[in-house]
UniProtKB/TrEMBL annotation, chains A, B:
Pfam families: CbiC. Pathway: Cofactor biosynthesis; adenosylcobalamin biosynthesis. InterPro entries: Cbl_synth_CobH/CbiC (IPR003722), CobH/CbiC_sf (IPR036588). GO terms for biological process: cobalamin biosynthetic process. This is Precorrin-8X methylmutase. Belongs to the CobH/CbiC family. Residues 13-207 form the Cobalamin biosynthesis precorrin-8X methylmutase CobH/CbiC domain. The keyword Isomerase applies. Keywords: Cobalamin biosynthesis, Isomerase.
């Protein structure tokens, strides 16, 4: 096997990536200021996940979002994702170390049945089912505007919402409704988002909480 | 529950999304031409997944890539992803209808053991393990440049590669090496990519094959 020359240590690759991201921000946006180390950690990890520096300007944080999300994770809560992809991307080992967990009800038989019976999306039925669970809740949406709209219809007082559905129909409107809801929220303005972005935001919080221990 | 006004039919949402994407391309890039309906399906689905129109210019298709990938899927092959996120995003029901399947070896105990023993990434060890399987293979990488470099080191004649690792260290270089390898490949130029993009490319092929049936 002919060996090629490339960095092979995952931690070294990640560390170097964040240095490069910092340099690019410094060079291209010298006046850009992060509001806090946690704000910086979230934005840089989303850029790490997307290689898209538009994320410097897209993410909206409600004033209490980072505090509320971190406290809920540390006190033990359930995260609910709208896709198995977002669930798959979240560091579940680390989440469990804080006494929290993540669930995705999109393929739950009760959700499939209810969506069919009521003529609603499975994403909406999954929100309804999750809200029946006991305990503190964080909702993590990277895909389905209908899930986010449904959550807002319930006017439930949840611990936090990561609202970054991507798309062209309803996505932007759902995120603006989240921003205006007053819920503790991290939301993407405009069309961009995705399950990868949703997972990256949660992972950034988890890694920052681990470092702070 | 106070009802909000939004489209709730998944098929209608998707159809409307693709119409909007087509309109935006028409308005902003009137001279842009797709090489074929399949080429168009892939690019538009990646834009649908990312809301990022840079994908009009980023994706490289080797001359035989679309034919080889579609034939392999239709004849029954194994897809290997570098992340559970990419695996999670691929339509496995539809894939199975064509007699194909998708696997991710990243957490296989043999991979974890081998990576530790040899001081390589688990992504590399997963490629080594996959190449020992019988049958036609497609590799689908959205995250790990080391996986793509490793595959190229083996000089294996696989049925196709979707090479779209995202990132700042090795990602671009690994994709350029793929482009130059002569393998049937869809590759992203530059830093962008991701597990969501990798899954979207495979799903675009699957939906096009289903429509053609």
């Amino acid at each position: 096997m002919e060996k090629m020359d490339y960095l092979q240590q995952p931690q070294a690759i990640e560390a170097k990536s964040f240095v490069i991201i910092g340099e690019i921000i410094h060079d291209t946006r010298p006046d850009y200021r992060f509001a806090s180390p946690l704000h910086e950690a979230v934005i840089k990890r989303v850029i790490h996940t997307t290689a898209d520096f538009e994320w410097l300007d897209i993410l909206h944080f409600s004033p209490d979002a980072l505090d509320r999300l971190c406290t809920a994770i540390q006190c033990g809560c359930s995260l609910y994702t709208d896709t198995t992809m977002a669930l798959s991307g979240i560091n579940k080992t680390l989440l469990a170390q804080f006494g929290s967990e993540v669930r995705c009800y999109i393929s739950d038989p009760r959700v499939v049945r209810r969506a069919k019976a009521d003529g609603i999306t499975r994403s909406m039925a999954a929100v309804d089912l999750a809200l029946g669970d006991a305990g503190e809740k964080i909702f993590v949406f990277g895909n389905a505007p209908t899930a986010l709209f449904r959550l807002l219809e319930h006017k439930a007082q949840v611990s936090g919402v990561v609202g970054v559905p991507v798309g062209f129909v309803g996505a932007e409107e759902s995120k603006e409704a989240l921003v205006e809801s007053g819920l503790p929220a991290i939301a993407a303005r405009g069309r961009k988002g995705g399950s990868n972005v949703a997972a990256a935001i949660i992972n950034a919080l988890l890694y920052s909480l681990r470092e702070a221990q």
